[in-house]
Amino acid sequence: MSETNTVTYLKDYTQPDYWVTHVDLTFDLREGETLVSAKLQVKKNGDHHNPLVLDGEELQLLDVKLNNVALAKGENLTEGYMVDQKFLSLLPTNDTFTVNTLVRIHPEQNTALEGLFKSGGNWCTQCEAEGFRRITFFPDRSDNMATYTTKIMADQIAAPVLLSNGNLVDQGQTEDGRHYTVWEDPFPKPSYLFALVGGDLACLDDTFVTASGRHVVLCIYAAAKDLNKLEHAMASLKKSMAWDEEIYGREYDLDLFNIVAVDDFNMGAMENKSLNIFNTKYVLAHPNTATDADYEGVEGVIAHEYFHNWTGNRVTCRDWFQLCLKEGLTVFRDQEFSGDMGSQAVNRIANVRSLRMGQFPEDAGPMAHPPRPDQFITINNFYTATVYSKGAELNRMLHTLLGKEGFRKASDIYFDRFDGQAVTVEDWVHCMEDASGRDLSQFLLWYTQAGTPEVKAKWSYDHGTKSITLTLEQHIPTINNQSNGQPRHIPVKFGLVAPDGQDVVQGVLELTQAKQTFTFENVPPDSVPSLFRHFSAPVNLEAPYTDDQLRHLMIHDRDGFNQWEAGNRFLTTKLMEQIDRYERGQDILVGEDVLDSFRRILQRTDMDQELMSLALSLPAYHEIAPKREVIDPHAILAVRKAFLETLGRELHNKFLEMYNANYDPEKSYDRADAGRRSLQNTALGYLSHSGDAEVAKLAVRQYSQANNMTDRYAALNIIINMDEAQSYRDGVALHFYYQFANDALVVDKWIGAFARSETDGILQVVKSLTEHEVFKNPTPNRMRALYGSFSQGNHKGFHAEDGSGYEFVANFIMELDAKNPQVASRMIGAFEKFRQYRPDLQTKMETQLRRMASMESLSTDLSEKLQRYLGKEAFAQLRVGKSGV
Ligand code: PHE
Ligand code: ZN
C-alpha cells in the first residue's frame, strides 16, 4: 500500500508542548483570495527543547516572524522554519514568545466546506473538527484554549456584514475605501469554535433579558429574501435561553448572540461561540414552505446549538475521543427541551425510533464503536449516531439513576469545577459520583464498549403468595470479534399493571449482573410487567408477552412510550411472521387480529392526536430490516404493502371518517394543529392504498386547497406514488416545482419526493433529475435530497435486483469524494450493512464497494469506511499501487 492512513489512539494523548494563549487575527477578504495574518502569544508547557509545531493545510505561507523578527525557511530548524503539507515547525528560544504568520487562502475554491468557504456569495467558516488549520497555522486541537481578537476587512458593497465571535469593539473605513470590524471574544476557546461571516445578509433582531438582568441582543441573519422565515427560529432561541436558565441554571454570558443561515453546509449547524452558523434547513420556517416536522427540526437544532454554549463551549472536550461528552449531553438536553415544549411521549417515541433505525444497526456493523471511541483515522467519520444518540441515552440513564435533583446537582458541580477547561468523559461521570455518592465505575462501560445489550425478561406468578417473580438476564453481543461481555449497569423503569389498569408497583430496577431476580408481593393475578418505561436504557428487550398482554399495555400503561411500544411490538411480530411466510413462498395473510388492533385504536377518544397517529403507523422498513437475520428488501416491501392495502381496504370507511373529521382547509394555519394534520395525512395515506380511485381526487383537492406545506407535501407524495393518481402526477409535480422554484429548501423536498418514490422505473426519473437545472451546482442539502433519499429511503430503487441502484449511488460517491469527502463519506452509509443482505444483493453491493476502493485517488474519510466495510486485508489489496488524495 503506497498510502498510509494514520490511526490516532486515545491512549496516546499527551498535552501539547506549547500553549497558544491569545491570538490576533486579521482577515482581508477579497475576490479571488483572502489574506490571513495571525499573531500568536505562545507559552512553553513544561521543560523541554521541542520545536513548536503548528497545524496547517492548503495554506500558502507568505511570511513568518518569531518575536517580530522575520524567519527564513530553513533546511533544518536551526536555520529557520520548516513547512510541509501539514505542519509549520520552528524552534523558539524563550519560554514565552510571539509568532506571526501571513497566509493566502482561496475560499471560492473550497468545495470541502471546511475552513473558510463561500456560500451564496457570502464568506463563512466551519472549523469543527479540524477546519481551523485550513485558515491559519495553529495548534488545531481542542485542549488549546485561547482568547481571540479578529479584524475583518472587506468591500462595503459585497460584504456590509462582517461578523466574528464575541463583542464588536471597533468598526470603520480602511484607507483604501473598504470597511472593517474588530471582534473580541473574552472567553478562552478551542479553535474549532472560531467563526467568521462576511456578506450581504438581512437580519431579524430581538432582545432577551437573562435571569440576572443582562440584556442580550439576538440577531438571526439570512439572505434578504428569507427575512420573513426567521420568526420561528427567534422564538425557539428565546425559549431555549429561558429553558436553560430554568432547568440547568445556565445563563447566556455575552451581550450579543448571532445566528447565520447558509445554503451550503455539510451538517445541520455549528455552535461557534456567540456566532452559530446554520444550514438554512434548520433556521428557515414559514407555513408556506416548511412542514410541521421542519418546524420541530428548527426548534430542536436551535436549542441544541444554543445549549452547547455551556455544554461544549464553556466546558469543552480535551480531545476528539471525548466528542460524546459535549454531543451526548447536548442532545440529551435538546431532547428534554423538545419534550417540554411539546409532548414528552411523542418526542421519546420519535427519538427511540431513530435510535433503533440508525444507532442499533451501526452498533452491530463494521463501524461499531463505543460512544467514546479509542481510535480513529478521521474524526469526521465519528460524528455518528453512536456518539450523538447513544451518547444522549447514557446521560438519560444517569438522569434516571440519580433522579432529576441529583442530575442537576452533578451538572452544577461540573460547570463549577470545569468552567474554562477542556475535559473528559471521566470528569463528567465523577461529578455524577460526587453528587450522588454512588460508584459509577460499572456504568463507565457504557462509554468504553460498543454493542447493544440484549435483555431477556421472564416472569412467573405464584397464586399462593400472590407474588410475581421477574427475571432479567443481560447478554452483551460480540462486536468486531471482540467479546466485551462484562455486564452493564442498566436502569429499568418499570411498573406492574394490574387487570384494572392501575400500577400495583412502579419504580426503577437496577440490573447490574448477568442475571437477576426481583420478587413483588401482593400483586393481583394477571398483572402485566411494563418494562423499560420511557425507554430507560438502549437495549433490545426480549419478553414473552402474549397478544392479550400487549393489548392491555397498549390501553392502560401509564407510560405513553410503552403504550406505543406494546403496539409496535405486536405489529412487528405480525410483520415478521408474514415476511417469513413470503420468503418461504407462501401467501401473505393480514390477520383479523391486526385489523382488530387498528379498530381499537381508531375507536379511542382519549388519545393525543399525535400519539394516535404514531399508533396507527406501521413499523418502517428501517425498523424491520435490522431485525432480519438476512435482509430481503423486496420481502419487507411486499409485506408492508400488503398490510397497507389490507388496512386501507378493510378500514376504508373509518379512515375516510377520520380524514373528513380532520380536514379543514377553511381554517387558517395554526402550528398547534400539527396533531390534527398528522391524523388527517395518516388517514389519507392508508386510503391511498385502499384501491379506491376517488382518493386520488381527495389528494388533488387537498393539494390545491392547502394553506400550509405539511398538507401540500403530503398530498404531493400521495399523488406521485398512488397508481390511481398517475394522470395528475406530472401536472401537480410541475405546478409544485414552478411555484417554489426559487426556494431551495422546497426544491429539495420536491426532489426528495421523487427520489423516495417506489414506483416502477423511478431510477430513470431520478437520473433525469441529475440533468435538471436544479442540479447544476448542488448544495450538500440537494445531494442528500437526491442521493441520500434514494439510497436510504427508496428501498425498491436502491436495492433493484439488477444492481442499477447501487451503481448509480456509487458513481456519485466516487465523483463527490474528491470535492467533498465529508459528505461522500456519509453517503456511503447506505452500503454499511451489505453483509446482512440477501447473498445476490450482497455481492452486487460489494462489487460497488470494491470499485470505490479501487479508485486511483481516495480521501482518508472514504478509505477509513471502506477499510472497515471490506476488511483491512481486502481493502489493502485493492489499494496496491494507488495514492491518497
Ligand atoms: N457540532 C455540531 C453540532 O453538533 C455538528 C457539526 C460537526 C457541524 C462538524 C459541523 C461540523 O451541532
Ligand atoms: Zn452538537
Attribute tags:
five-stranded mixed β-sheet; binds zinc ion; 885 residues; alpha+beta; single chain; eight-stranded mixed β-sheet; globular; 33 strands; binds phenylalanine; 27 helices
Bound molecules: phenylalanine, zinc ion
* Beta-strand segment tally: 33
- The strands making up the biggest β-sheet line up spatially as 6-5-9-3-2-12-15-14
User: Helical amount among residues, as a percent range?
Assistant: 40-55%
Q: What gyration radius follows from the Cα positions, in whole Å?
A: 28 Å
Strand content: 15-25%
> What gross morphology would you assign?
globular
Q: Characterize the largest beta sheet: strand count, sense, and whether it forms a barrel.
A: 8 strands, mixed
Low-confidence stretches: none
Structure class: alpha+beta
Q: How large is the count of helical segments?
A: 27
What is the terminal-to-terminal distance? 14 Å
Average of pLDDT: 97
Oligomer: single chain
Helix/strand layout:
Blueprint: E1 8-9, E2 18-30, E3 33-44, E4 52-55, E5 60-66, E6 69-70, E7 82-83, E8 87-90, E9 96-105, E10 115-119, E11 122-126, E12 146-154, E13 161-164, E14 167-173, E15 179-189, E16 196-199, E17 202-209, E18 215-222, H1 231-248, E19 256-262, E20 269-270, E21 275-279, H2 292-307, E22 316-317, H3 323-341, H4 344-363, E23 375-376, H5 385-418, E24 422-423, H6 425-436, H7 445-448, E25 454-462, E26 467-475, E27 490-497, E28 503-511, E29 515-520, E30 528-531, E31 540-542, H8 547-556, H9 560-583, H10 592-603, H11 609-615, H12 621-624, H13 633-650, H14 652-662, H15 674-688, H16 694-705, H17 709-721, H18 726-740, H19 744-755, H20 762-771, H21 780-793, H22 795-798, H23 804-817, H24 821-827, H25 839-853, E32 857-858, H26 860-870, H27 872-879, E33 883-884
Parallel strand pairs: 2-12, 18-19, 19-21, 22-24, 25-31, 32-33
Antiparallel strand pairs: 1-23, 2-3, 3-9, 4-8, 5-6, 5-9, 7-8, 10-11, 11-16, 12-15, 13-16, 14-15, 17-18, 20-21, 25-26, 26-29, 27-28, 27-30
Helix pairs in contact: 1-2, 2-3, 3-4, 3-5, 4-5, 4-9, 5-6, 8-9, 9-13, 11-15, 13-15, 14-15, 15-17, 16-17, 17-18, 17-19, 18-19, 19-21, 23-24, 23-25, 24-26, 25-26, 26-27
